[in-house]
Hints:
Layout: H1 3-12, E1 18-22, H2 29-44, E2 48-53, E3 71-72, H3 77-86, E4 89-93, H4 105-109, E5 114-119, E6 130-133, H5 140-150, H6 159-172, H7 183-194, H8 199-207, H9 212-223, E7 226-228, E8 233-238, H10 240-245, E9 268-275, E10 280-287, H11 293-300, E11 304-305, E12 309-314, H12 318-328, H13 333-337
Helix pairs in contact: 2-5, 2-6, 5-6, 6-7, 6-8
Amino acid sequence: MNFQHIKALKELISSQKTIAIIPHKNPDGDAIGSTLALWHYLQNKGHKATVVAPNDSPKFLKWMPGAEKILNFEKDNSASKTCLEEAEVIFTLDFNHLGRVGQMTEYLEKSTAVFVMVDHHQQPADYARIMYSDVNMSSTCEMVYELISYLDDLDAITPEMANCIYTGIMTDTGSFKFKATTSNTHRVVADLMDKGAENTAIHHRIYDTNSPSRLHLLGCALNNMVILQEYRTAYITLSQEELDRFNYQKGDTEGFVNYGLTLEGICFAVIFIENKEEGILKISFRSVGDFSVNDFARAHFQGGGHTNAAGGKSDMNITDTINYFTSLLPTYKKELTA
């Protein structure tokens, strides 16, 4: 974060403001953790701050300190609109394009608030007056920690904030195993534990609380896995009928795509999930090594993200999408088999 933006942010929040804090649609642990941590920080500084999420978050994140205060734009529509209209400052966290907030996009686009972006994804848009963008960071939660450090205020991190930040770092690094995990990430995590982050309890709440239906859905997903050894690729499909059969709840498929990468010799894993309500297939891409799923998702599936983790979508049905996807692989064979 450059000096001018640090100075501008300090000046911006030096007096009480009405602030909206926005995560992306279908928020994950990093999105909820970063927004709630920032919410606690700004509230404790005397600001009138509110987290407004485009839609609901998974059940396994509901325990997070302050989660009950989040406004859900879909369910709390009137209150959410009022909050966005009254906001003098809008923080957008864990996304860098206003199209990532679904129906909220039009309300953000017409807002006269000062926008502050905190994000670690590639190719950010230029809507924010104050921008903290760093693709080398493990997570937006690690960036929130660093942001507070830039404000010379690390002593203000409470146990509640520490739990929120730790959660986002843990989930976005795959429990600290992904390439973006650095020595600094571990130093941040160590300080968060010193400040009250309950690492064992957080891990249990996120990873060790399953319903029978979720495990059955995982079994279905693994049974559907197709391995294309020639391209070092594995993909999973889940239809709406299969989701319904196993009583799918938001967040149930979290992490399913990573199972493909546990196979020996596989460097590219994908999951295609049908969503009939939205009329699309939601797609998650993962890779190991130098193959950029960000570039792949941007080029072919209206998406993007990081080099080794990205998302996208398809407006075609499952069969046509898979046919299109597999038709692309010969073009990338050299990169996938290098």
